[in-house]
Amino acid sequence: MRVLVVEDHQNTAAFVRKALLAEGFAVDVCGNGEDGLMAALTTPYDAIVLDIMLPGRDGLSVLRQLRDRLNATPVILLSARGEVDERIEGLNTGADDYLPKPFVVAELVARLRALGRRGNESRATVLRVGDLRLDTVSRAARRGGQEFDLTAREYRLLEFLMRSAGRICTRTAILEKVWDYDFDPGSNIVDVYLKRLREKLDAGFEPKLFHTVRGVGYVLKEVP
Amino acid sequence: MTIRTRLTLWYSGVFFLSSVIIGAVAYREFVVEHRELLGRDGHPSGEPEHERFEDEEAEEAEVLEHIVQIGAWFGLPAALLGLVGGWFLVRQALAPVAELTAAAGRITEHNLEERLPRSGNGDELDRLTEVFNGMTARLAGSFQRIREFTLNASHELKTPLTVLQGELEAASLDPELSAAHRERCGTQLDEVQRLAQIVDGLSLLTKADAGLVPLAHAPVRLDELVQDAFADAQILAQPREVAVRLGACEPLTIRGDRNRLRQLLLNLTDNAVKYNYAGGLVTIALEAAEGRARLTIENTGAGVPSDLQSRVFERFFRVDPSHHNEIEGSGLGLSTARWIVSAHRGEISFASEPGGLTTVAVSLAMEAP
Fold first, then answer.
1. What's the pLDDT tens digit per position in A19-37?
2. Could you tell me if B241 and B305 lie in one domain?
3. Is residue B279 a contact partner of residue B344, using CB atoms and an 8 Å limit?
4. Cβ contact A164:A175 at 8 Å
5. Which residue of B has its CA nearest to A103?
6. How many CB atoms lie under 10 A from the CB of residue A26?
7. Would the CB atoms of B235 and A105 count as touching at under 8 Å?
8. What is the largest CA-CA distance in chain A?
9. Which residues of chain B neighbour A81 with C-beta distances below 8 Å?
10. Which of A1-5, A108-112, B96-100, B145-149 has the lowest mean pLDDT?
């Protein structure tokens, strides 16, 4: 996947580039809107990470120009302001996603992958990770011949983790997908739910499937 | 005593005094003129000296009585007129002051942009209004600068926080670093995220102050949100061995922003669980009372001393500042809750008995069924 990062702040651009390279993306970086627009129009990228506050031409203007020229490359907007209006304006202008600063890089990676994967999401009715099975029709979880009762919230959380198995799920993403929270609840609710789910489905079994990524989120996978 | 009463009394006093002086002057004129007349005529009737004096004395007494009579008949009504007229005049004169007082009483940090209407005639009161308007304009400017400062500060803080968070995140996942080193980076990452949370909360409240946070205005089933919050609170309370009970939960609908109301409920229940003790209790209830939705969240716990209760909605307020690290949170929970409630034109109150129950009550206008 080839990604263009348009970000004027050098340090931010540097660690985003490093993180994306580590994830196996090909990355180009532009430091201002004019160069970014030029690059986006001349090179076929799989996704563009676009900061809103840029010197010269700002991110929204770059996005508008792209869409006016019928360029449909998926765009994730970055913004330090994080205002609801700006988010809506960005999405209306044709952005595919919006990430307020400060963001977790794993979050950006997950969203970039989601954009690349869009449309071919797994539609399987039974999800499997290791020996853990989740039937999305009967909403029953099974592991080691045992069946577990899940509350509605626990089910949604487990389904989300299993559908993203092997990938880090950040707290923000979990809050957004499982709780529909578009705000920071200022509470450790995700961790408390995860702990419960772990006690139910992971505590008495080997190998462990639930893994905490410190300061970032959680990942469900067979090998640590 | 009001200025109005004082001025009226002075006014009618002066009025009365001047009519007395006029009376006295008139009396003197009368008597002196009379004496001069007599003196010029000599002794016309040849009466003995003392008889003439008696006559004169009687005549003077008569004049005096006459004057007192005139004074009583006209002076007192005049003083009364002065009283009434004075009362009226002073009222006229002070009416703009009363308006100014009322207008000044209405001013809060939220309507500093309003200006008092000026008469424009350049009198003292017009000048006062002008000065007053100038003062509120300066105040509005100061508030605006504080808001802009907080907004810009939180904006400026976000870029370095992004970099810091990104670097620490990469380091905490870097397999080339030792486990101990990664653990240290993880701890720092936790603190950076906490800082980011505070900055976020602060910029949200600053934007809310400036009216920059738009809220939805749609029908919301409040009881469903309460049920939801109750389920979450039970999970949150389990590790702390706190029991959560749902009292009345009447089905009722209000108008508002679903997500913000969920945030409100989560903030309040989270607080009720956090500031509790093992074996304690949280009770959530939703009732309709006098056409309003009344939500109460009660919890056992250490409580808040009464002299500090008025400050619990302040930003970063902690009952016990020395122990603020033991309980997680940004210190903005109740400030945010108050903003959400007032943005829904509701009321929020806080009551607590130290060592007893702490109750947060929220009252919101109900949607007509």
1. 888 888 889 999 999 999 9
2. yes
3. no
4. no
5. B162
6. 12
7. no
8. 62
9. 155
10. B96-100
Considering the domain architecture, whether residues B292 and B237 belong to the same structural domain is answered as yes
Nearest CA to B229 out of B366, B368, B362 is that of: B362
Task: Classify residue B357: in a domain, yes or no.
Answer: yes
> ipTM, 2 decimals?
0.71
Residue B204 Rama label (left phi>0; alpha psi -120 to 50; beta): alpha
If residue A50 lies in a helix (H) or strand (E), which one and from where to where?
strand A47-51
Domain membership of residue B298 as a residue range:
218-365
Q: Are residues B148 and B192 in the same domain?
A: yes
Burial class (CB in 10 A: 0-12, 13-18, 19+), B188: middle
CATH code of the domain containing A38: 3.40.50.2300
pLDDT at B249 over 60: yes
Residues A79 and A170 in one domain: no
Is A83 in Cβ contact with B267 (below 8 Å)? no
The interaxial angle of helices B179-209 and B333-343, nearest 10 deg, is: 30
Q: Which of residues 131-160 of A touch B (CB under 8 A)?
A: 151, 153
SS (H, E, C) B173-219: HCCCCCHHHHHHHHHHHHHHHHHHHHHHHHHHHHHHHCCCCCCCCEE
Residue with tokens 């009722």: B252
Q: Provide the residue count of chain A.
A: 224
B263 close to A (CB below 8 A): yes
Looking at beta carbons, which residues of chain A come within 8 Å of B189? 214-216
One domain for residues A173 and A111: no
Give the total number of structural domains in chain A: 2
What is the share, in percent, of chain B residues with pLDDT greater than 70? Answer: 92
Contact residues, chain A, for B244 at CB < 8 Å: none
Question: Between chains, do A213 and B173 touch, taking CB under 8 Å as contact?
Answer: yes
B197 touches chain A (CB under 8 A): yes
Residue B12 to residues A100, A119, A146, A147, B19: CA-CA distances in angstroms?
Answer: 72, 91, 99, 97, 10
CATH number at residue B227: 3.30.565.10
Tell me: cis bond preceding B117? Omega within 30 of 0 counts: no
Q: How many domains does chain B have?
A: 3
Question: Taking the CA of residue A103 as centre, how many other CA atoms within 13 Å lie in the half-sphere pointing to its CB?
Answer: 26
Q: Of the candidates B106, B130, B152, which is a domain's last residue?
A: B106
User: Which residues partner with B11 through β-bridges?
Assistant: none
Contact yes or no for B215/B258 (Cβ under 8 A): no
Angstrom distance (rounded) from CA A16 to CA A25: 11
pLDDT, one tens digit per residue, over B255-311 is 999 989 999 999 999 999 988 999 999 999 999 988 899 999 999 988 888 888 888
Q: What value, to the nearest 5°, has the Cα angle with vertex A137 and ends A135 and A139?
A: 55
The pLDDT value given to residue B138: 92
Q: Is residue B116 part of a domain?
A: no
Question: Rounded to whole angstroms, how far apart are CA atoms B85 and B73?
Answer: 18
Q: Where are the beta strands (DSSP E) in chain B?
A: 218-221, 243-249, 253-256, 281-289, 292-300, 347-352, 357-365
- A193 Cβ under 8 Å from any chain B Cβ: yes
- Which structural domain, as residue segments, surrounds residue A173? 126-220
pLDDT greater than 90 at residue B245: yes
Residues A20 and A65 in one domain: yes
Domain end among B56, B79, B106:
B106
